[in-house]
Specification:
Oligomer: single chain
Structural class: alpha/beta
Number of domains: 2
CATH architecture of the largest domain: Alpha-Beta Horseshoe
Number of helices: 16
CATH class of the largest domain: Alpha Beta
Largest sheet: 9 strands, mixed
Distance between the termini: 58 Å
Length: 473
């Protein structure tokens, strides 16, 4: 069992993040100033922060301290601990001691990929990816003025629950009676809050769950409500996460087209039908191709398609083959996610992490997919990471030309305000800090997660957001 004693600081979160990369989920014993990892090596470490800003991690046998320019204390304690655990376990992580969800934020602070390699031990290919993507993100973010608002509208229902998912979404087969009431509540919340919005809207994202799980009548009614209540300029980006091909019908495509929506997501996750069936998804790879071509023929020129690398029931080469098949379809955007362990998902952590690489080298398959995408004319435009991701990898959105999604970049940046409608949504306000170009102070306003309770308390949720944004009617 690994034990890390914190000395001179109380940064349990940062210590736990580093321990998690090497030793599985740790336990924070704050009353004793320790972080414990039952799956880790049998060793005691002390992670100390000194008054001069230095951090040293040491065992009875050895000390670990970075010989160079000091980082801010939170990063410094992680760096010395990473050095120790990397040496003890003989492992190097692709992102080095960077544990946050936005490595591109750190990349913005540096002049070259080499600085990420030297300061944070980031692997050269990931340093280049972060540096390149950070510049694309900043270009896209500049298209969203700081006073403008981004809006998220959530439909937390799916036609079935995937084995890897623990999202707030509900399996609609168990809750058919809730859909109409939920959609009506969502319309009520939008109408109540919309009259108080006095800021321009740069982007709207209708996501889930699977928004197209709504019946055609309710789906069209929701779009009517969005377009009649919100002040949507011709420049405003509106995205619908159509999601699963089995929920996309002619009527829903026609409704989206008639409302003027041009950006949609059709997300196969894999182009291997056998994998889809075993994961609990109710569509085939052929359904994905059929719906994509149908949407393209109807004039939807901005389509994103998601893939997940590291899925069980298929090997690394089969993931790469899925990437090839999507490139043949040539959507504007392709996003490559890496499977990660969601807290309440049915899929076990062991199956997600695949430490023994029984399914092939995930790292290699992701690199191969990236290479294929770049060769086909795609470039990375946004990227983020999640805890308990297979082999410490990342999620990266690729785009052709200037088709990157404004909402994705603005939301992930924590530099632009987001107003969220629907159960489980998180609204946030971002405040610039003096002397900080890329970091903002963020205040958050959650919406109750349970859909039934949301329906019952929708007026309260609406008033809460009006107050949070200090909107005046």
């Amino acid at each position: 069992m690994l034990e890390v004693i914190l000395k001179g600081h109380d940064k349990f979160y940062g210590v736990s993040d580093v321990v998690r990369m090497f030793c599985g989920v740790p336990e924070e014993v704050k009353e004793h100033g320790r972080v414990i990892a039952p799956e880790g090596p049998d060793i005691l470490l002390i992670n100390e922060l000194f008054e001069d800003g230095r951090s040293v991690t040491y065992s009875p046998e050895k000390e670990y301290e970075f010989d160079g320019e000091l980082l801010e204390p939170g990063r410094e304690i992680k760096r010395s601990l990473y050095m120790a655990l990397s040496d003890i376990t003989s492992k190097k992580m692709p992102w080095g001691c960077l544990t946050g969800i936005r490595p591109t934020l750190v990349a913005c602070e540096e002049d070259s990929p080499a600085a990420l390699e030297e300061k944070y031990f980031v692997r050269p290919d990931k340093a280049q990816l972060a540096f390149e993507t950070s510049r694309e993100e900043q270009k896209i973010l500049s298209l969203v003025p700081e006073n403008n608002l981004c809006i998220y509208i959530g439909i937390p229902f799916c036609p079935s629950r995937c084995e890897y998912c623990s999202f707030v979404s509900s399996d609609i087969s168990c809750h058919m009676d809730r859909l109409k009431n939920y959609e009506a509540a969502l319309e009520r919340e939008i109408k109540t809050v919309a009259s108080s919005i006095n800021r321009p809207i740069s982007a709207i994202y209708i996501g889930g769950g699977t928004p197209t799980v709504l019946e055609e009548k309710e789906f069209s009614s929701l779009l009517d409500s969005v377009y009649s209540n919100l002040k949507i300029s011709p420049e405003c980006e509106v995205t619908v996460e159509a999601g699963r091909p089995d929920t996309i019908t002619d009527g829903k495509l026609i409704s989206m087209r008639e409302h003027g929506i041009t950006r949609i997501c059709i997300n196969p996750q894999t182009m291997r039908s056998e994998t889809l069936a075993r994961l609990g998804r109710k569509h085939s790879a052929e359904d994905t191709v059929r719906v994509y071509r149908q949407a393209s023929e109807m004039g939807f020129g901005l389509i994103n398609m998601d893939l997940i690398a590291g899925l069980p029931y298929e090997n690394a080469e089969e993931h790469v083959e899925s990437t090839r098949r999507l490139i043949e379809l040539a959507p504007a955007n392709i996003t490559v996610h890496t499977l990660y362990k969601k807290r309440r998902a049915a899929m076990s952590r062991e199956k997600v992490m695949d430490i023994e690489m029984a399914r092939g080298r995930l790292d290699d398959s992701v690199a191969a997919s990236y290479a294929l995408l770049k060769e086909a004319g795609y470039h990375p435009y946004y990227m983020y990471r999640q805890k308990d991701t297979g082999h410490g990898l990342e999620n990266t959105g690729f785009a052709k030309g200037d088709t990157g999604n404004l909402y994705n970049v603005a939301m992930m940046s924590d530099c632009r305000d987001v107003l969220s409608f629907g159960a489980g949504g998180m609204s946030k306000r971002c405040f610039a800090q003096e002397g900080e170009q890329y970091k903002h102070r963020v205040e958050r306003c959650p919406t109750i997660k349970d859909a039934l309770t949301y329906i019952e308390r929708v007026d309260e949720m609406a008033e809460k957001k009006i107050s949070f944004f200090e909107m005046q009617g």
